[in-house]
Design brief:
This protein has helices at about 5-15, 80, and strands spanning about 20-25, 30, 35, 40-45, 50, 65-70, 70-80, 90-100, 105-110, 110-115, 120-125, 135-140, 145-150. By secondary structure, the protein is mainly β. The strands form 2 sheets. Strands 1, 5, 6, 7, 8, 9, 10, 11, 12 and 13 form a 10-stranded mixed beta sheet that branches. The longest helix is centred in the N-terminal third of the chain and has 15 residues, at about 5-15.
């Protein structure tokens, strides 16, 4: 596939990202109707696919960029291929490994630095569980403020 055709495949995804919610997540389960992720799920619906031939090729462990609206996936692509064309400021839900913590700032692999405040909701853990290598699931509001931090498997050792 040429670079131009790859760009053309991703342009509709970029244009629509502002209208829906952009998720940068790892797939845990696909039953053909719903896509499940760490702490959330989306209906598969009739989502347009980029980088995979069909819904049955969406397998656990895949890193996906998903444009969703009202809990239904509208466009799905491979996060590694699409993320370079999308402004990172547009994501609403993302999974990333924690690289470092400085005060109330988190440095995350692939997401950069994000700050949390007293209004940030903690799910399945607390600031005491923030250790480098820990996998975090983050949610932001429309203004980009971090609203929730879910610590995936806080009982496991960080990677």
């Amino acid at each position: 596939m040429t670079r131009t055709s790859l760009l053309l495949l991703t342009l509709p995804f970029c244009a629509l990202a502002a209208d829906g919610e952009l998720w940068l997540v790892e797939l845990e389960h696909n039953d053909g109707l719903r896509l499940q992720f760490q702490g959330a799920e989306l209906e598969l619906g009739n989502a347009a696919l980029s980088g995979v031939a069909g819904n049955d090729e969406l397998r656990p462990g895949m890193r996906l960029a998903i444009l969703s609206r009202d809990g239904v996936a509208e466009r799905i692509g491979m996060a590694d291929a699409i993320a370079g064309f999308l402004p990172t400021s547009q994501w609403r839900r993302a999974e990333a490994s924690l690289l470092a913590v400085t005060g109330r700032a988190l440095r995350l692999q692939g997401l950069g630095v994000l700050a949390f405040d007293d209004d940030t909701r903690w799910l399945n853990g607390s600031p005491a569980d923030l250790q480098p290598g820990r996998k975090l699931v983050l949610s932001r509001n429309e203004q980009g403020r971090l609203t929730e931090i879910l610590i995936a498997n806080p009982e496991d050792e960080p990677e």
